[in-house]
Each structure stands twice: as structure tokens, then as C-alpha cells.
Write a structure and sequence with these properties.
This protein is an alpha/beta fold. The chain has one domain: Rossmann fold (3-Layer(aba) Sandwich). It is 52% helix and 12% strand. It has ten helices and five strands; from the N terminus they run βαβααααβαβαααβα. The protein has a five-stranded parallel β-sheet with strand order 2-3-1-4-5, sandwiched between helices. Helix 2 packs across helix 5. The protein is globular and about 55 Å long.
Length: 211
Amino acid sequence: MKSDPNHQPQPRVFGILGGIASGKSAVAKLLAGPEACILDADKLAHEALDSDEVQPKVLAAFGEALADEEGKIDREILGERVFADHQARKQLEDWIHPVVRARIHAGLEEARSLGLRRVVLDVPLLLENDAEHGLAALCDLLVFVDCPPAEREARAQERRGWKAGEVARREALQLPLQQKRARADFVVQNHGSLDELAGSVAAILTEIDAD
């Protein structure tokens, strides 16, 4: 059978799994490399939150006090509020998730049209909300980033300014890490140096490319 010269090769889609502050974004960058695409749900959610479509709804529901000096929503204050209130979190997700989902699907289509070799989905609730967005089914491979709880807790406090215990509190609302790990095709250990992490990811890519 002759190959179709007009046929674009389909990118291999990676999904990133792991706990909060485990280093998922770092692994996503390493997997993508310079010639691939990362679709970062957190970044897209931040953009959606500041959009004319979502921001007025949030301020009307949760109060104008959430706006900072530039008029943008203070995400730390909002996060503390919605993670303590199931109904508030559900309402916020109902506004943001459809926007993020649409942008991710658009990004996947663009990657296909450009003939990119790889696409990495950095979506924190990739498995939890799969019935809603169906993104896990679009992944060819799932990679779990493993990092000790104490190290993740320290990172969250240092880099995000979170209070002690906040990681555990938020993760209690998510799928257990053991289940996420069990779903993964590959596990990357992230409790060493960046060079060690890069080596582990490179080994995965070498193994995949050899298939």
C-alpha cells in the first residue's frame, strides 16, 4: 500500500499524572523538548479566570474583594475559599472547565495540523474529570511523576506560599495517588537533581522511540 503524501503523521500524546507539587510541569517540559507542544490546563485556567467571559461571574458570586490592585482575581484567596466549599468549587469549575476544555481540544487540533511529533497534556485532574472532558482517552501514554510527600509539602510551602497541610487537604478531594500510579505506563522518580530527572525522561523517550 502506498503512503499518502498528504497525510500528516499524528503526534504522540502524553498525559502527566502525579501529586501536587511533584514536578509535573518540569517533566512535561522535558517530554516536550524544543519541538513539541505543552497544553497546560493550569495556565489555560488562569487565562480563563481573567477573561471577560468568566471574571465578572466570579466577582459577582464571591465578592469584589477578590480583585487585586490591577483588577485581576487573587487566585490564592479564591483557591482557599473554593477548596473549603464544595458548592463554590463546583460553581467555579462549571465556568472555567468548558473554556479550558475547548482550548485544549483546539490546541490538539493545531498540533495535528502542524505535524508536531509530541503533545503533552499537563492537566491536574486528567483522570478525575475524564468523564467530563474525555482527555485521558486521547493520551497514547500516561506518565506518573513520583515524589515523596514531605518534599512536595515543602515545595508547596516555599514556592506557592501554602499553609502546612494544604497539599494533603486538596489531594483528599482527588483520586488517590496509588490509583494514578497504577494507570501510568511509565513512572518517573523526582526526588533528585534536575539532571537526574532529565536522564529519566530521556530514557523513557528512547524506549518509546525504539518501539
